[in-house]
Design goal:
The complex is a heterodimer of chains A (131) and B (210).
Chain A: E1 6-10, E2 15-17, E3 34-40, E4 46-50, E5 54-64, E6 72-82, E7 85-92, E8 104-110, E9 124-125
Chain B: E1 5-10, E2 25-27, E3 34-38, H1 54-59, E4 69-70, E5 73-77, E6 85-87, E7 100-104, E8 113-117, E9 140-144, E10 157-158, E11 166-167, E12 179-189, E13 202-209
Antiparallel strand pairs in B: 1-2, 1-7, 3-5, 4-12, 5-6, 7-12, 8-11, 8-13, 9-10, 9-12
Classes of the chains: A mainly beta (131), B mainly beta (210).
């Protein structure tokens, strides 16, 4: 059995297996409080987080408007909100800038400034102290 | 499927949006076409029928004549068309709104941005046209025109690196669904600029999806 790209476990102990880098199905996941979030990293390791009030998840891509390049997948972002602070787990997907695939950068930002100083959409409810 | 973006240029009438007049736009083949800023010449002109060579483009270079000079022409080198070069209508510091169109086919988690870099690595901006590392010195000026036409003579944002970018939805945030976003882009060379250069900066759209 293959290991899902990511897996959400909810407070009722049911689980949702996400899609892939092309279509993550994040917004199609059940509207139930998330107890834990597990992401399979490009290295084969896992990021396993829980205990946040809310979660967000998305893929960052770039597309040069000319110059013989295809769309480039840059990073996976996993975010957790706790007490108006967002912890951002950014995982590199390709040799991009100074990073190698799987390199993770963890930063904390005030809510609504979590992505280059701007807010993000797509947050799902979590559950504190349920991991 | 992941959200994707189609880049289009207006080649007919910069008062027409893509939604109202799709025939006014040409889709940029992101794997093959080029966008060229140039002064133009007897060999480099609209519908010339060939893709200009490097030497032809050198002859068509912009010359500085004691004042800041805005590069006069912008062409799409549409390699799959018979005409090859197509003037990007409305490009410049004028009041044109519908010039460069970025059509997203789905929602995003953040607001798409337009950036400029040395290469596809998106890690440096040391080309002279990008300000040689100084963001405010970039010669590439861009402005979001999604919400409305700019004022004539606009200077917009000097784009370079991650510190000099423009939001493409006029600061409206993430896209809730498919949308056409617009920008105008021009290059202005300072009168004091001392170094001849033929540059190939990378203009990039950065966006997110789920």
């Amino acid at each position: 059995m293959s290991i899902p790209f990511y897996q959400l476990v909810f407070t009722d102990d049911t689980a949702f297996n996400g899609g892939d880098l092309d279509k993550t199905f994040w917004r199609e996941s059940p509207e139930k409080p998330i107890k834990s979030f597990r992401l399979r990293l490009p290295t084969g390791d896992f990021l396993y987080i829980g205990g946040y009030e809310e979660y967000n998840f998305f893929i960052e891509a770039t597309q040069n408007i000319y110059g013989n390049t295809k769309k480039q997948l840059c990073y996976i972002y996993v975010m957790g909100l706790e007490k108006d602070m967002v912890t951002s787990y950014r995982i590199a997907l390709s040799d991009y800038g100074q990073y190698k695939p799987g390199d993770m950068t963890v930063r904390r930002y005030p809510k609504d400034k979590e992505y280059n100083g701007k807010p993000t959409t797509g947050w799902r409810k979590g559950c504190v102290n349920k991991m | 499927m992941a959200t994707n973006v189609i880049v289009r240029i207006n080649h007919a009438d910069a008062s027409h949006s893509y939604a109202s007049n799709p025939g006014d736009y040409i889709d940029v083949d992101l794997a093959a076409d080029r966008i060229i800023w140039t002064a133009g010449s007897a060999a480099v002109y609209n519908h010339c029928g060939y893709s200009p060579s490097a030497s032809q483009l050198n002859v068509a270079a912009t010359l500085i004549t004691g004042v800041d000079v805005e590069v006069a022409e912008c062409f799409l080198d549409d390699v799959s068309s018979v005409d090859k070069l197509h003037t990007v209508i409305g490009m410049g510091s004028n009041a044109s709104r519908y010039v460069f169109c970025f059509s997203f086919d789905g929602a995003t988690a953040t607001e798409p941005t337009l950036e400029a870099w040395d290469t596809s690595a998106h890690s440096t901006f040391n080309l002279y046209v990008l300000g040689n590392g100084g963001i405010n010195d970039s010669m590439i000026h861009a402005i979001c025109t999604t919400a409305g036409a700019p004022s004539s003579g606009w200077s917009g944002t000097s784009i370079a690196g991650s510190g000099g970018v423009i939001n493409l939805d006029n600061g409206g945030g993430a896209l809730s669904g498919a949308a056409d976003l617009y920008a105008n882009i021009y290059i202005k060379i300072p009168a004091s600029f001392p170094t001849p250069e033929a540059s190939t900066p990378v203009l990039t759209i950065r966006y997110t999806y789920v």
